[in-house]
């Protein structure tokens, strides 16, 4: 990897120094690189903070240990939610946006100053929020539902983070504009950039809701205006809270395609279908926020059912398209390389020593089989009544946001850090097992929470003993959750240690060198790229996986209807 | 560009981030936010003591 300056068609102008990457062969805008580094490092720091909070919470909800006192439980719960769901994810997504709008398009970043403003606002906001929470002035949890009221600095901090992210999104769109104007690429933007565009559009809707709800709440906390209506607050807040997770989903899918390509040379089996699925996300995924209000009395059934069923299913369709096309494209690429043995011979031939690939495979499986199936089921209005506010809900979203998004982002970091910091990873054997530990741990967390929740254990509750209604099975599943959390957080610490250690002590990648290969699929026999382009049966392994997925979906969905029927039997 | 060689509508839509941005903001704002907001404004105030 060299760092020689270039002045290609796109990378021109006073602040447009670039270098040529000898791993990807692409030009990297040095301004974008600086902000990718800054945002990625900040993201990992917030991930670490959120991880420390996670283990404290899990060891408190594990009733046999019950670590934290009541006030610190809710304080750390607030801290965990903000750091994991907002700060870690948003900072990393800004890094992805800067990468996706520059390197694949051979473009420079629109503005260094705008990027500084964005980063400064986000960082100051995030620090303000964390300090206020740890001072005990904002024990309101992530949702901060009114009439719970935090210190004004809490709301101001969130506003700064939201507006700072919006500024970064503006920088992203402006970069797309100048790339098109300067003709730095031909035809359509690459799929990874298209996916990032979808994430950015969803982020705009998300951050608009954040501004609508947080500004009047901030002025109320200062005593300047009246209290916003709590029902209104809940509705608009979920336009921020849930939609921010849809940004994650979209960015995660873009990462799936990218890592699939880097590790196996996979190309989308059908670009139009993949892009169409992203368009479905853009148009419909945000409506799913309504499932948080399925037991709220203020909004009617028509609004609830339209937004969580008919319209949301179009976004679910998009997820199912991606969950098919990503493994299908990998399968076709592997078979074209000659790995044709049986239905799943291509799976065993995958370069499993590549931690980015194993992270993405686990991300896809956990997101689809656990997060996706539970999400659609719990988002059904009738079934929601037996699951609302139980541990089943965090059981679901730990599979999507942590097992899905966080794991995929970890996988991406195994490429981003060597490519951006020009240092090869230390502890490569640790890196190989890290995604498996994290995926396995978070799977236990999700299963433990889901089963305990099925037995009625409430979420966001410090102590379930006084209720006196939970048997040994519920306690056992809380223990499963606790053990899973220990494994997942240990793996998170390994990940952070590897990232920080690499940035500080990793072997420098010399001028003209490529990054050390994590492992890519190698051709065997008389392999020929593109030879199976029109052979649809070449993705038969993925078709079998899809059939298994649909079977699991049907069993879980109808089992929940049965559980609902058992609550109110009709005779 | 000649009419015959014009890309299909879907491709033109996908290649235009600005239209996608407008649609992506408009649809949830109408379906989720505005509709929900209207429903909430129609809830009569509770007769508190």
What does this 3D model show about the protein?
The complex is a heterodimer of chains A (571) and B (49). With 571 residues, chain A is an all-alpha fold. In chain A, 67% of the residues lie in helices and 1% in strands. A two-stranded antiparallel sheet of chain A has the order 1-2. In chain A, helix 9 runs antiparallel to helix 16. The longest helix of chain A is centred in the middle third of the chain and has 35 residues, at 230-264. The termini of chain A are far apart. Residues 1-10 of chain A have low confidence and may be disordered. Chain B has 49 residues and is an all-alpha fold. Helix content of chain B is 63%, strand content 0%. Chain B has helices at 9-14, 17-41. The mean pLDDT of chain B is 88. The chains are: A mainly alpha (571), B mainly alpha (49). At the A-B interface, helix 5, helix 6, helix 7 and helix 8 of A face helix 1 and helix 2 of B.
Keywords for this structure?
heterodimer; A: 571 residues; mainly alpha; two-stranded antiparallel sheet; 2 strands; globular; disordered N terminus; B: 49 residues; 63% helix
Question: Can you lay out the helices and strands and say which pair or pack?
Answer:
The complex is a heterodimer of chains A (about 575) and B (about 50).
Chain A: E1 18-20, E2 27-29, H1 30-61, H2 70-102, H3 112-134, H4 152-181, H5 191-221, H6 230-264, H7 271-284, H8 301-310, H9 312-336, H10 345-348, H11 355-378, H12 381-384, H13 392-421, H14 428-454, H15 472-505, H16 540-567
Antiparallel strand pairs in A: 1-2
Helix pairs in contact in A: 1-2, 1-3, 1-13, 1-15, 2-3, 2-4, 2-5, 2-6, 3-4, 4-5, 5-6, 5-7, 6-9, 6-11, 6-13, 7-9, 9-11, 9-16, 11-13, 11-14, 11-16, 13-14, 13-15, 14-15
Chain B: H1 9-14, H2 17-41
């Amino acid at each position: 990897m060299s760092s020689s300056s270039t002045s290609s068609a796109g990378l021109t102008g006073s602040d447009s120094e670039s270098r040529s990457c000898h791993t990807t062969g692409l030009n990297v805008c040095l301004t974008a690189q600086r902000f990718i580094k800054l945002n990625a490092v900040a993201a990992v720091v917030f991930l670490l903070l959120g991880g420390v909070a996670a283990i404290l919470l899990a060891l408190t909800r594990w009733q046999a240990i019950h670590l934290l006192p009541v006030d610190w439980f809710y304080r750390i719960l607030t801290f965990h939610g903000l750091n994991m769901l907002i700060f870690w994810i948003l900072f990393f997504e800004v890094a992805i946006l800067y990468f996706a709008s520059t390197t694949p398009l051979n473009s420079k970043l629109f503005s260094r100053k705008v990027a500084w403003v964005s980063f400064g606002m986000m960082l100051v906001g995030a620090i303000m929020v964390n300090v206020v929470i740890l001072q005990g002035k904002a024990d309101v949890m992530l949702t901060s539902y009114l009439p719970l009221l935090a210190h004004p600095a809490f709301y101001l901090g969130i506003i700064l983070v939201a507006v700072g992210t919006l500024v970064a999104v503006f920088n992203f769109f402006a970069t797309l504009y100048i790339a098109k104007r300067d003709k730095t690429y031909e035809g359509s933007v690459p799929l990874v950039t298209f996916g990032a565009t979808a994430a950015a559009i969803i982020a705009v809707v998300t951050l608009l809701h954040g501004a609508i709800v947080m500004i009047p709440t901030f002025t109320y906390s200062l005593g300047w205006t009246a209290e916003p209506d709590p029902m209104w607050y809940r509705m608009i807040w979920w336009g921020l809270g849930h939609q921010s997770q849809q940004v994650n989903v979209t960015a995660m899918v873009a990462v799936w395609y990218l890592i699939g390509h880097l590790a196996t040379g996979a190309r989308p089996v059908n670009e139009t279908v993949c892009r169409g699925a992203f368009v479905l996300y853009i148009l419909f995924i945000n409506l799913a926020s309504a499932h948080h209000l399925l037991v709220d009395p203020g909004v009617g059934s028509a609004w609830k059912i339209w937004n969580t069923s008919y319209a949301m299913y179009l976004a679910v369709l998009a997820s199912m398209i991606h969950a098919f096309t990503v493994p299908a494209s990998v399968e076709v690429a592997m078979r074209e390389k000659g790995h044709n043995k049986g239905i799943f011979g291509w799976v065993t031939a995958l370069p499993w020593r590549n931690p980015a690939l194993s992270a993405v495979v686990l991300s896809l499986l956990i997101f689809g089989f656990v997060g996706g199936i539970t999400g659609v089921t719990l988002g059904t209005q009738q079934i929601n009544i037996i699951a609302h506010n139980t541990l089943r809900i965090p059981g679901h979203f730990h599979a999507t946001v942590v097992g899905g998004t966080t794991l995929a982002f970890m996988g991406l970091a195994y490429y981003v850090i060597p490519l951006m910091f020009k240092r090869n990873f230390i502890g490569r054997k640790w890196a190989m097992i890290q995604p498996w530990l994290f995926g396995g741990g978070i799977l236990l967390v999700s299963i433990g929470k889901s089963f305990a929740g099925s037995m009625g254990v409430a979420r966001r509750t410090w102590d379930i003993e006084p209720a006196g209604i939970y048997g040994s099975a519920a306690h056992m599943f809380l223990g499963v959750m606790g053990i899973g959390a220990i494994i997942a957080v240990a793996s998170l610490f390994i990940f952070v240690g590897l990232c920080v250690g690499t940035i500080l002590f990793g072997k420098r990648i010399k001028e003209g060198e490529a990054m050390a290969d994590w492992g890519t699929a190698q051709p065997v026999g008389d392999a020929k790229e593109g030879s199976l382009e029109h052979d649809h049966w070449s993705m038969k392994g993925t078709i079998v996986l899809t059939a298994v997925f649909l079977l699991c979906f049907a069993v879980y969905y109808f089992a929940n209807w049965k559980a609902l029927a058992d609550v109110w039997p009709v005779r | 560009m000649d009419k015959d060689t014009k890309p299909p509508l879907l491709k033109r839509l996908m290649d235009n981030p600005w239209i996608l941005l407008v649609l992506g903001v408009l649809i949830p704002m109408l379906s989720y936010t505005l509709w929900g907001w209207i429903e909430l404004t129609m809830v009569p105030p509770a007769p508190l003591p």
